[in-house]
Amino acid sequence: MSQTRIPAAFIRGGTSKAVVLKRADLPEDETDWPVLFAAIMGSPDPNMRQLDGMGGGISSLSKICIIGPATRPDADIDYTFAQVGIKDINVDFSGNCGNMSSAMGPFAYDEGLVIGPRDGEAVVRIHNTNSGKLIEARFTVQDGQAVVDGDLEIPGVAGTGAPVALDFLDPTDTAGHGAFPAGGVVSRVDLTDGRCIKATMIDAAMPSVFVLSNEVGGDTTVLPEEIDANGPLMARLEEIRCRASVAMSMTADLDAAASRMATPKVAMVAPPARYSDLSGQSHAPDSHDLQIRMISAGQAHRAVPVTGALALACAAQCEGSVVAGCLPDGADPLNLRIGTPSGIVSVGAKRDAQSEKISAARILRTQRRLMDGFVYVTDTRLHDTN
């Protein structure tokens, strides 16, 4: 055959979609994975559409998830996430996708990879190999299958679904350089245009950098397309991201930081203000606690990555952070309401009173398997590394 076929499922998790593969169906040598994953997604594509693959031309639709047996005793499965470039074949394994994390427990349960009740609540402990952290997924099962119908509505997804509760346990220090790798809750970043901006660089669920929108010339009330079209702003945010990567000891220099697209993520934050989301719905200032516009793989995210929302919630627990400074009096850190381009997202983080360490961060998502069978890759693409 001129094509290679691989068993696969196509699944929506939260506001993302991904091709989900089993570790046993992939090459043993993991150095072969990047070219394969880029081919599956239809990358590289200078037209930014990925028409010759499973990708959808934006970062939230250009993802691969790999499920395999657990490699640590306190987990039920291993889960590896890959963010696939669109214009190029850059495949980044440095961070997790929290949205797709919501689908990993139900997938493992439905595939018989874990043992659970036939009816009731299933609990799957997921070892995310990207971060080395555990995620505890809780969801309802009926007649031996994960339930997908329910009443939970999440911004950015039409309709409702069954909730999946995700607890990201001990979420800080995913990269091994501490919760605040740059050395403090607030750092200063000097930019080439002469600006000196404040940033909170936190590693919680995912390494993230939060800056005030008014300090970088941005606006958190506008939609993603307007942010993407603002070339100087996007270049400024990318410079911040790259400089933060070096300051957080994630990369050795700015060139290495530029090639590592998935982490850290950079986001603009601001206090509550009236804005309209992608559906046209207007949100009053008292409907949310702060606003966020996060950049993901070079594009303004259409909602907010789950791991980005969790990092935001963790930063909100830290006095003096850029995020905490945006919160109104009375904001509840266990139920933080975030204004995103797709609506209001609720997320929370818990801080231990004695150690002051963030012990867990939680969010509710929905998920649904859309299709399964085989994904096909041409032999030409597998050997084309341009």
Automatic annotation (TrEMBL):
UniProt keyword terms in alphabetical order: Isomerase
SUPFAM superfamilies assigned to the protein according to its UniProt record, in alphabetical order: Diaminopimelate epimerase-like
A GO molecular-function annotation: isomerase activity
Coiled-coil annotated spans: none
Top-level taxonomic group: Bacteria
Annotated InterPro entries: PrpF-like
Record-stated family: Belongs to the PrpF family.
Protein name according to UniProt: PrpF family protein
